[in-house]
Amino acid sequence: MNQLPSPPSPPTLEALLKLKRSERPDAAFWAEFEHGLRQKQLAAIVEPKPWWLGLRLALRRPAPWIGGLAAGAAAVVVIGLPPIAGFDDTRPRVASVMSAPSPVRAAEMRPETMDLAVQAPSSAGATASATPAAREAIHSPTGHAALALKPPAGTTARAEPQPRDLTERLLEQATATVASLVVGMEPRRPESAGFLVASASVGPGATAPSVVSAAAEVFADDEPVFSLDSGALASLANGNASALAHAQPEKAVSASANSRHSRLLAAVSETGAISSLQALAQVRDQVLHRMGGDDELYASISRLGVSGDRLSVRF
Amino acid sequence: MRQIPLLAVVIVHGAMERTLPLIASPSPATAVAERRREAEQDWILVRRVQAGEVERYDDLVLKYRERIWGVIYHLTANREDAADLAQDTFIKAFQSINRFQGQSAFFTWLYRIAVNGTLNHLQKAKLRRFFSLEKLQDDGGAEAVLAQLADSGASSDRQACLSELQQKLNEAMQKLSIKHRTVVTLFEIDGLSHEEIAEITGTSVGTVRSRLHYAKQLLQNDLQEYLRG
């Protein structure tokens, strides 16, 4: 005679909970997870968290305007390219990458400094003979000029021919001097000012890509890395790059060979001077081609655009 | 085809009671010794990362990604959210790794980041609750539980049982408060000790025990029709 099977025993709560250990995704999920993690790592490198995000966390209050501000400060790496023949653009060319406020710019904003029409100094003596008001422009308001954040030669002047103050001329000449001495770079390139600071931090034996790598960090930080007083500026204007050796570093910058962001900028800059729209398109196509390849660096680019004389890369 | 309710499956199949071992768990002493050894290995890796060998961090990610994802998944019941939060956890840990002094085990520290991030996320997204079931990976544990429910039957029925069990479990878990869910997840699912959970959640061992007891009572009540009394 067949025995009836006894009723089953339900599991315990502990057994049911341990069942959840078996809930695991498949290998495809982990591949996607890995890809997402790499992208976030890159974004974390490229997009330093703004100070006001920390403030917002501290206050623990929703503030809609902060979201707008964050969107405005989204990490779009803009590589300033040299002027393109036939392209009539009157915008300041370095505003997007060197946009942090500087003491010099603050001085320029004041009405009295706008009236400073002095001749371009060709020597330290010229600096010494500048008007007291001009000296004030150099020293004010903090007595230091933030070299990294100053627009280079021929940018605002091309848009609207106005008399430039002494500080700007000194910066222009200092930029030209060090750019040619240290990296052999054309001083008219709009990113020269950034490269100038970068080159100072990399050293005299720097190659162009390594300087670009360092400049990338400078741009990412949007902060001046060196402050030069008026004496150092005048010295630089005379072609004496040793003034940089005495400059006070405000922020430690190193050429980061590991930074993907820096490598990308360096790779793009290897194309050299770009003098036409056709050449610009070639750079864009080159990057696009690499984006389709196996290089993780390029695969992490989410948007590539050309606007005017600028190449924009978004990660 | 209509899914057969779990209870109906249990009654229809009328399986004999079996005393199969469920998921094999190491003894507490073995688990503690194993964790200590793991912590020492992790500390070596962390020091190498701190010394500049950042690629060693990938080893830590690879080692802990499933566990971290698992904890977050069991707290959120959403696989996509869990993936996002787990990635954020690893990035935050990497950004702060130079501040890690080895005063606690690396995995405890990592869990703390994961749990705090998940709690923040859950508090922000109280109104947005999308659950997503993860497929059970056949490693014997699920089969053992199922075998306890039904001795025989078509595989489709067993799959239906598993799905229903999963769903009921998830629903019951999501009814718990975040704090209680955290303790249940870390203790019952992830197998951490009371002391480790207290360290991760920043509470006392007594609080952990109390929360665990209360949470299990709630789950027991919620799932009583499926559970041994």
Task: Tell me what the structure shows.
The complex is a heterodimer of chains A (315) and B (229). Chain A is mainly alpha-helical and 315 residues long. Chain A has helices at residues 13-19, 27-46, 51-59, 64-72, 103-109, 111-114, 124-128, 132-139, 156-159, 166-183, 192-202, 208-221, 230-237, 260-269, 277-291, 296-299; strands at residues 76-80, 145-146, 226-228, 248-249, 303-307, 310-314. Helices cover 49% and strands 7% of the residues of chain A. In chain A, helix 10 crosses helix 13 (230-237), helix 11 crosses helix 12 and helix 12 packs across helix 14. The longest helix of chain A has 20 residues, at 27-46. Chain A starts with 12 loop residues before the first helix and ends with a strand. In chain A, 38% of the residues are buried. In chain B, 68% of the residues lie in helices and 0% in strands. The model of chain B is unreliable at 1-24 (pLDDT under 50). The chains are: A mainly alpha (315), B mainly alpha (229). The A-B interface holds A 4-26, 29-30, 32-33, 36-37, 40-41, 44, 258 and B 10-11, 13-18, 22-23, 25, 54, 61, 65-66, 69-70, 73-74, 79, 83-84, 86-88, 90-91, 94-95, 133-139, 141-142, 145, 148-151, 165-166, 169, 184, 188-189, 216, 219-220, 223, 226-228.
